[in-house]
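We emphasize that the prediction below concerns an isolated chain of 709 residues; any contacts that depend on oligomerization or on bound cofactors are therefore not represented. The input was used exactly as deposited, without trimming of termini.
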Amino acid sequence: MKFNRNDRPISVWRPIDTDTFLVGAPHYPEHVDDSFLERDAERMKAAGFNIVRMAEFAWHIMEPRENTYDFSLFDRAIEVLGKHGIKTILCTPTATPPRWLTQHYPEVLRTDVRGRPASHGSRQHADTSSPVYRTHSQRITRVMSEHYRDNPHVVGWQTDNELNTSTSLSYSEVTRREFQKFLEDRYDNDIAKLNFAWGGDFWATAYDNFDQVVLPLDNAPVSCSPGHVLDYHRFLAFATARFQSDQIEILREVNPEWFIFHNLGRMTDIDFRGPFSRELDFNAYDFYPLLHDEMQRLGGPGLVHSQHLDVARSHSGNFIVPEQQSGFGSQPPFSTLTPEPGEMRRMAYSSVSRGADGVMFFRWRPAHFGAEIYWMGVIDHDDIPRRRYDEAKQFAGEVTAMKDKLLGTHVRMDVGIAGADFDNEEAHKTYAMGLPSPHDDALILHSHCYRRGIAAGFIHPEDDLSPLKVLYVPHWLIWREEWTAKLEAWVRAGGTLILSARTGSRDINNHVIHDPAPGKPLTALAGVTVEEFGRLTPPDADGLFALGGMYDTNGKRVVKQTESSRRKYRFRLGNQEFTAAHMYEHLSLSDGAEPAGEWSNRWLEGQPVISRRAVGEGQVIYVGTYLTEDMMPAFEDQFIAPAGVTPMLEDLPEGMEVSMRQSDDRRLLFVLNTTSEPLDVPAGLEGSALIDDRKGNALQGYGVLVLEL
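Result of the prediction step, given as a token string:
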């Protein structure tokens, strides 16, 4: 099993440098007695598994009393698994500190916005910014890693578990002191710099020194400065990365041969372009597709799955999935739908097709106690392997057989959507104005490309843009000047850059810029100046305060808009007319920019809503409103198709998805049926089939087709 340290910079195009596709399951030997160890290992081997992950919640077993250690349970489990050829990934167990720790050192507990300390009995209740908790985390990481330093069956580590998924917030006195230290460093111990960045002359919010700085309590009684809120979330991201870095430093020192990753959950308050990802060998992403379906409700399971996976890949490149949904999932407040026969395998191939270089089915067996007793695994409560085991075995055999074709490839993208930028994700939240987030807007374009079979995904402007034909920037408020020259060079070489309303309208301090939007660098590039902007109501919804209107505690809408207050603005694109949503911008064009769409009613009638400016061999498009689903076919016809973008597979039936992984010497086309019914595969497919679930021309329900082109 080879995993090389990846010296390539973080990039959406970066595969994991390995010769092994990891396939297996998270394993919890602490949830059953020792009599299960041997038969579990035998069944895993028979299923074709080569890896397990364990110990992320077992600190209390390994250190039952402070400075008293007992690793015997995991020693036995690792040895039995190793005897059957199954390697182990260990986890630093810091998501769940033992009770003696929180009892003796209560200052490590998070405090919520109401001033209540977190309680023992759950998880992620310790504050990662706490110096005391960091010390205990470092100690258990060192003792645990030194114990397994020379164990040949331990090949890698996961830091913590889904950092910040339960919550990233804390409002304790410890957090406030650490926040103040962070600010002292950020602003060179100069309180005048902080007061400027936070707009201290507004509402008398200035400070005399850093010891006076408070944590931002929203609605206490009204909103805080956007600069204050943004810096708080920057601090949380800093504290999270520092907490992880403590552990990585120890693990690297103890055994440099181990690979190290983190399994991402909700991905809150993590700066993926900073040390958090740079210090890891690769990132990992826990993927529960049927949970995401119901949480997001965007229509169509494959669509939602593709978006989550494409976002995960944008952070640092190819990833592994340490937790892939295998069955029914539940915690006391909710439960998911259950994958139907064949769907568990299909969902695993969705992960593979969009950048996974390893998949582990959560979990090997379900627990009989605790807060996830109905989170099912590969094996059932009664210890009987059934259809989920059979599907896991089928997947393991198939993906292992084609690993040499798969590993070393990246996911194709013709259309890039700017993403994975921490400041822009957070800046919108600090002053949202009821407008969609940049990611909400991006999903409209991503959804259209998905349904059309166009290779699209998310990418940061600092990545290599040369493989792209189109790059869409979805309302990024903060534009860093150093990005402009790179994007201009890419456009001059033939790229199509599409900028959207409000882009570049705030600076790094979250202040509105003094120049007209989109700011001097982008105004020069796009030939556009925003003379005025204003809010429009969402399509088919009331506005005011939040998307979709205001609601009472029973979910009933209580704010209604009159027809006259809707003020529908319409525009022409091509030979069609559309209703604009969320915002209008009054644009002034210069330097050869030309109208590519015009407002068609009210006071803006005849003014450009979309502009186009030729730059070298390429072009810059500026869209002075938000995307809507209705306009996307015309948007593709006018701006995406002319850039040379064509679907990977024409005329996809609804429910069929297509994606491609490729390298310099090979291309693998994935065609997946996300429905339970057979779907006809579009004509014209050629290539050598690595996996083929077709019967005649029909791809069977939840079927998989992988072709080497």
